Each structure stands twice: as structure tokens, then as C-alpha cells.
């Protein structure tokens, strides 16, 4: 069944949510293990997340498991009840949070509270549901929410969940069951089995087990992603990708941009085979007109053109989550145009070649300008450009280079647009750099808010006379908060509780908190420091990340991951 166009009001949506979706699973409540899968944000955000949908599909694929969804209340959903049967979260055996962004960590506390559960794991005894959490935000750094979660899944859901559920015993004493699970299942982290101590200067001194459990948690991943199809389970009108069927094409990225956590924690990069993608495509075109290809390195798929043609022959319109400027060809742009795409995105990330070398972006100005031309020549009228400010070693000259590059892009854009007799818009998105865990920049400090504001003003002034150019800025203050949470240790749990007590008012909490938040955000860490996330073993050697950071400071680049089990970063050895 194909879904009709979305034309309902907010109130109608609330009452008729089940009618606006196709693919939801409703099982009878009998002897199943009952799992509430919770996305700690609104329905619209959660249902746009392919990882969340994948876990829903995996869990409902087991005969003995019943999985229903729940979200943060909004104008569509007024209470925290499961979507499928309107049950309270307290009626489930397991509450499983799927967390992609650390900015949603605070919502976990608020959901637990609203659902009637004690927020602290230590106060939730055996009769309460087991609260677990997984998703990329958890396997990058779960420590800021250690206090609220009984156990974390450190790895890809397909690789950990089946084994986890084999050892889960409904109704058993929680602590005993968790101890057994940890001993039998790789990729499970129970915070209550570990303690930490701190140095006088506030840095982490030690992280150690207090039970018979491993010292480090080994991240577990799926070696052959073609063995499973990762795609939308439910197609809904109320998502960012309205009525699109999403298909994961690849996982991880070979390019090694030094600011990107996903590029390191999802190593080795993996691509699906064309034949496995075709099977998933057939499922998609049966229920949706539009197919969204998802992945950090879609344009690196060797058969990308064949995949696009295949989708279009089957009558689908297509879109991509990202495309690299150096991989954009006329054929790819034409395929996008054919699907009705009106805006194509390029991410130069840095304005100067020097900064692009620092971040190991691996694209040149010529490639960026040529991608602009290819997009407009294909008939796609609008372009969106992503840049970062506040990158390590950045000077005001580098910021000025963003202005200069945008003007060059604009000129190339106009030259090509005139030939087409249609002039579209350029949107420039400027985002403060956040030094993330498990990247070569994990030791760097974030640029301060005053400096970021100065850089934003410089770009605004530099481009204010440019017609058809719109500039969007991510707020430096919000980026500060994001850095605080993503780089936090266990002390951050108290801060998040305070945010919840202050009804989500982060700025009030920043003023009233006794925590020195600048310590987490601005401080450059020393290479021999124990980092809050060091207990997670992603297989990447810390010495490799350090070497990459040192190369960045010398403006040196590194070759992409060769994807052939070399020994460079350590992932393919372990
Ligand atoms: S060890 Fe080599 S092939 Fe494997 S992920 Fe690292 S860089 Fe890539």
C-alpha cells in the first residue's frame, strides 16, 4: 500500500497516527518478553532515524519478543505510552533507549521520570523494567548518563542484541542476570560494576571493575553488512523524510576526516553488495515512491550509478544522505535531478586548503568548484554548503578564506545558472567545531564562544552584499553544551539531573551548577591522560589517533583507509 500525501492538521495526526504509518507490528500480549523501544526525542525525529527503525525490526523478528515504540511527548503524542498498544512503560520487561545524539541524553531522564520510574538505576530494583541504552551516542561516550541506565549495548545492534536476549531472563534478579549477561555477551557495559576516581585537578585517575567483569568493553560490529538488510520498517508521513523508504547502503567511511567520530568508531568501512541492495529496493518500491539512500560514504559505493539506475527503472525517486564533492559526477547529478531534487549539498568544511589538510578532508578547491558546476549543469537549482569554524590551528585568515571560497562558488554557480536561464539560491551553513571522543581531535579544546561569534560576524559581513546567498549559523552556546555533554565524565550525570530539575533550562543550569563546565569544553587534554571513554575498546590504537593529531598540527594529510585489512589504525588486527 502506498501512502497518500501528508495533508493532516496536528490534531488529526494525534488521533490518527496509526493510519499515517505503514509497517508497524502489533503482537498479542501473551508470553512474550515485552520491550519498549524508546527514542529520546519526538516521534518525527525518532521515526526519521534508521538505526531506531532497525532495532524495532530486529526485536520484532524474534517470535518470543514483542517490541513497541515510545517517544518524547509533542503535539502528536501527549503522553509517554507505547504507540502500538498505548501501554505505560512500566508494563514492559525492558525499556530500551536508542540514542544517536548526546544532545538527547537529558531527555532520557525526563522520559524515565514522566513514565513513573526512579531515574537512578540504583533505585530501580528487580520489579522495575530493565533499562538499557544503545546507539552511536552510547558507544562513543555513555558516561554522562551512567547513573540512569542499567546496562549499555556497546556495539551494532545486529551483532549484540540476539546474544543479549538469549541470556536475558525475564523476572530474574536484575543484578545476577546482568552479571551473567556481561560474562557471556561481548559489548555489554553495566556501569554499576565499575567505579572511577579522580585526580586533584579534576582529571580521571582510574576506571576499574568492582565485580568479576572485563576491564574494558569490546565494541562489537557486524563484519558482513550484506547479510542483513537495514531499511525502514515503518514508512510514516510524519518524518523528516516524508514517505521515504530509507536504505542503508554503507556503514563507516574510509576518508578519515579528523573531526568525525563516525569515521573512526564505525571502522572498518563496509559496503553492501548490489544484489543485496536490489532485494531491499524491491521491498521499498512496493510501499513508497521515494527511496532515501543512507550512509556516510554513499558515493564510494563502486556500483552507485548502477544502484541509482536500478531504483529509477523501478519507478522510485531517490535521494542521498550525503555526497562528496570529489565523487560527484554528471551521471550522479543527473540521477538526482531526475528524482526531483532541488538542492544538492557540498561539505567543503574548511575554507582554505591548509585547514582542509588539517582536518584531512581530502578535497581541493578545484573539486569543490567543479562539483558546483556539475550540480547546476544537471539542472539542480540550489546548493547548500557546510563549513566549520573554530577548527584546531584556525586563524582569521582561514575564516576569510571561507568568505573568498563562497564568492568563488557563487561566481561559478552564476556562470552555470545563466546558461540554464535559472538562478537558484546558495545556503551556507556555518557550524562550530566540537572536538569529539574517538577522533584525532579528542585532545583538542573547543574554540571559545567570543571567538566563534567574532568569526561568524566576519563571515556575515564578508557575504552580506552577495545576492541569492543565505547564511545559517549553529549557535555557539548550543555547540558549547553539545561539547560539554559529549566530552563529559560521570560527574556530568549530576549536571543533567539539574537540567531536568530546571525544566530543561540549560542556561539557568550553567549559571547555577558548581561544575566547572569550561574544564570539559575548552581544556586541551594531555596525551597521557585517562579519558572518560577509554574503557571502550573500538579496536583503534590510541597511538594512531595521536599520530593523526600530530600530523594535523603540521598540516599533513593521511591516505584514506584502504579497506583491505591493513595494520594502520588497529581495527582489522583485533
Ligand atoms: S586497519 Fe587499515 S583497513 Fe582496517 S580500518 Fe584501519 S585503516 Fe582501514
TrEMBL record:
<protein>
    <recommendedName>
        <fullName>Radical SAM core domain-containing protein</fullName>
    </recommendedName>
</protein>
<feature type="domain" description="Radical SAM core">
    <location>
        <begin position="239"/>
        <end position="474"/>
    </location>
</feature>
<dbReference type="GO" id="GO:0003824">
    <property type="term" value="F:catalytic activity"/>
</dbReference>
<feature type="compositionally biased region" description="Polar residues">
    <location>
        <begin position="1"/>
        <end position="10"/>
    </location>
</feature>
<dbReference type="Pfam" id="PF19864">
    <property type="entry name" value="Radical_SAM_N2"/>
</dbReference>
<dbReference type="GO" id="GO:0051536">
    <property type="term" value="F:iron-sulfur cluster binding"/>
</dbReference>
<dbReference type="InterPro" id="IPR006638">
    <property type="entry name" value="Elp3/MiaA/NifB-like_rSAM"/>
</dbReference>
<dbReference type="Pfam" id="PF04055">
    <property type="entry name" value="Radical_SAM"/>
</dbReference>
<dbReference type="InterPro" id="IPR023404">
    <property type="entry name" value="rSAM_horseshoe"/>
</dbReference>
<dbReference type="InterPro" id="IPR058240">
    <property type="entry name" value="rSAM_sf"/>
</dbReference>
<dbReference type="InterPro" id="IPR023862">
    <property type="entry name" value="CHP03960_rSAM"/>
</dbReference>
<feature type="region of interest" description="Disordered">
    <location>
        <begin position="1"/>
        <end position="23"/>
    </location>
</feature>
<dbReference type="InterPro" id="IPR007197">
    <property type="entry name" value="rSAM"/>
</dbReference>
<dbReference type="InterPro" id="IPR045784">
    <property type="entry name" value="Radical_SAM_N2"/>
</dbReference>
